[in-house]
Amino acid sequence: MEQMTFQQLTYNLMRLYAEGKYAEALEIVEQNSERFPERSARTTFWKMCLLSLCNRPEAVISVFRQGLENGLWWAKSQFVDTDLDAVRDLPEFQRLMAISQKKYEEARKHVEPDQTTLLPEVPPSGEYPLLIALHGRNGNKDSNLEYWEVARQKGWIVLSPQSTQPLYSGSYCWDDPQHGLVDLLFYFEQVTQKYQIDSQRVVMAGFSQGSGMAIYAALKGSFAVRGFIGVGTWWADANELVCERKDVRGYFVTGEKDQALDRVREIQNVLKRNNVQFAEEVHPDIGHEFSSDFERSFEKAIAFIFEEHE
Question: What is the pLDDT of residues 275-286, one digit of tens each?
Fold first, then answer.
C-alpha cells in the first residue's frame, strides 16, 4: 500500500480531529510520525494535544520530556492551545514549559532570513510579474508551494519568504505584523535587485495567517502591490488591518466548512467599510484548505485583480 505524504497525514488528522475521533487521530500520527523526522516538532506537539484530549496526562508528560531531550522546543505561546487544558496546570508540565521557552528564546537569537524562489521555465520577453506567497502559522518557506506552482507555470516569479518569528523548530508565524513587514521589505528588496520585476504586476498571496499577513502588507502600502489573494484567510484581529492604500483589489478562496470562516467575514467587513474592492469564490465542500482546482482559482483571482488594467 502506498505510504501517505505529510500533507495527507495532516488532512487525515484534521478530519478525524474535527469529528472528535481523537484516539484514531493519535493512532495515525503514531504510525506515521517516524517517516517525517524533519517534522518531529510538529508531530510531537500533535501527540501531546491528542493524548491530552484522550485524558492521558502521564503520557503527555512523557512525550513532552522526550521531545525536549531530543533537542525539540516550542514557544510558550503554543501551549495556550485548549487541547492541552487537561495538563496545563500540572507542576511537571509547567516545569517542562519553562525549559521549552528557554530553548526557544535561545534559538530565536539565531534565526536567519530564508526563502524559496520559483522561476518560470520560459523567461518573459521583458520583466517578470511577481507573486509573494506567504506560509501560514506553523509553516515555513516550503509550505503549500505545490499550489503556488501554478503561478510559476504561468510566467510568474514566486517568492515564498520565511518569517523570522519562530514557533518551534522548522515552523514560523506572522504574529507580530510589524516584524513581518520588516521581513517582507527585506525579501522584496532582494528579489527586485536580483530579477527584473514588473512593478505593475506584484501580488501578495497567502494561506491562513499568511493570507492575513498578505492583506495587512498590501493595505499598508510599504511597497507597491496591485492586489492580494487569500486562501483559508485568518487573522487574529481584523481591526489591525489599517487601510492606508485603497486601490488594491483582493480575491478570497474560502470553504464553507472552514472553522475560520467568521474571521474571513470580519476581514471582509473591514474592507467594505474602507471601500477596498474584493471578490470571493466559496467552496461548499472544503474546510481550511486549498480548492481542489486551484489553478482555476488562481486564474480567476488574477483576472479580477487586473481586470480594469488589461
Answer: 999 999 999 998
